[in-house]
Amino acid sequence: MPLSKDDRIAFSLQIVNADAQVKGIDLAKAQLQAEIEKLQKLDTANKNLFDPYNILTNSYQAEINLLDGILRTTFTEQDIQNSANKTVGNFFYPNVLTVTVPSLAATNNIWTKIKPFALGYAIGKNYSEGNGTIQKEGDLITTALGYITAAGANTDIENTTGQQCTGTPPDTIVTFPAVQTLKTDLVNNINALKTFILNEATVISAIVDSDPTRSAQNTAALNDINNVIIPALNLWLGYVDFNTSHGQTTCAGFNGYNANLLAPTKLHSVQLAALQSALTARSAFITTRIGQLTANLGNISQDISTGELISSSGLYGQRYNFLLLRLNLLGGTLNQLVTMQNGSAGQGSMRANILNNKAIYMSIVPTSILAAPGNGTATINVVNASLFAPGDTVWIMAEGQEELQRGIKSVAGTLVVLNDIIPAKYRPGEKARIYKDLT
Fold first, then answer.
1. Beta partners for 382?
2. Tens digit of pLDDT for each residue in 50-67?
């Protein structure tokens, strides 16, 4: 069914406008790309400010996790990117209705403020403002102290030799299974504790901190490991398990034998007392170190109704301030960058859509703009004469003028000879064009 006049005019106009629209988009996109490149450099600079503090914060978290057993969260550049893009489940602009965020209960677990949400990942918590748990050094120390206490139920000679006297005629000195098992359990525990503490030392050694106070604390923490607790554990582990060279054959002789003459052994009272003292001192140091690390990490308090910080301290506060430079919805470089990149992508989609629409319209209404104004003759000069052939019924249109119907008599190069004249007022500047209807 042939197109209506209005439809022919509208489609042909869209065709001749398409190239100019594409050119305008290309120009705007080039200008936007220049701004994107400038902003990318600033965002990279902001990232360079942020990254060292994030690494340092994560390093201190890794140590304190091992000391208090509270598993603190970390996040990566991809998580920051996700937050800027408002990806579902992102860390700093919570947006999942079905996942509970206690502070956001009144807003259906959605964060709508300008500044990033600071009560989750910004302070080592998870999406729901909680923490996981892991084994801590104190767990191993508590177990070791329990074994030492259990050893107190035995006599020193039993602990030192790993033997007991049955006391049934005749007196028999035999292996004491409970003491043997206790020794094995304690050795395994101390070896596990040693491995655990050496891992802590690796974590501390990896911390690079220019702050003199924190650096001095780190040195003291390493010294306590390398020069105090590890030597104490090694000393105890180096003792023989048992010494049975008492030469006694009776219960009276065995039970009355001076165990000090067989020491040092792992379960002798003196060696156990030294181990207990070292473990107790280590526990006290852990308490001190947890206090230091807690202060170093600091905290953040945020007004949920406004998003403004009530207070911030330590590395958490410093890290969050640098994160603001990127994620603040008003001026954050990464947020701006994402907006511009989305705009550029949108322009690309618009460009492709214009060209796609042009191709569709051309398949219905092949159109060419005039290369020169009409000259009051039947011959016109067109940009693309290959669209037309002798015998075609065509229309000539210019904005502000009437649509003229003509027939083509001949086509040669870019010249089209019609069956009637075209006035000079049909000019390319007014989108003068020739088209035909293929419907």
1. 370
2. 999 999 999 999 999 999
